[in-house]
Specification:
143 residues, mainly alpha, Arc Repressor Mutant, subunit A, 5 helices
């Protein structure tokens, strides 16, 4: 970040919130929820989707929209349908354009700092989720 500028947690939270509002607007135009977009991303990248009831609900939603081809054997991984690939490519292009517009006035150093902040937040979210779903249930010490 630029010298002399200090950001508080509140500033970071406001920036993240503003970016999420912009992302939600892009997704809303395509009638896609954020959860659906995240699952589509996972499928497109070949990542496994967990078997939680919430994930199954999202899979049913995107299947009903014709965005995925479900495996007939119930064991093979799902994949994006031809239509799903088209929709996902349009979403990626729209999100990429939004990202370019959002960060175009930032220096490379500031963009790198923002990237590291976002990755740290994601890592913290994963750690919190792991602790919440541990074998002994929720950890009451999780913030």
């Amino acid at each position: 970040m630029s010298e002399g500028i200090e950001m508080s947690e509140q500033d970071l939270g406001a920036a993240i919130g503003a970016a999420e509002v912009l992302l939600d607007a892009v997704l809303e135009q395509a009638s896609i929820t954020r959860a659906q977009y995240l699952v589509l991303q996972m499928i497109a990248m070949g990542e496994p989707v967990d078997c939680s009831p919430a994930a199954r609900d999202v899979l049913h939603e995107i299947d009903a929209k014709g965005l995925i081809d479900s495996a007939s054997d119930g064991r093979s991984p799902v994949r994006l349908s031809k239509y799903g690939k088209c929709v996902f490519q349009v979403l990626l292009a729209d999100v990429d354009e939004l990202t370019r517009r959002l960060y175009r006035d930032m220096s490379e150093a500031d963009r790198n700092a923002a990237y590291h902040v976002v990755r740290t937040i994601e890592r913290a979210d994963r750690l919190r989720a792991d602790r919440m779903s541990g074998p002994e249930g929720p950890d009451r010490n999780v913030v």
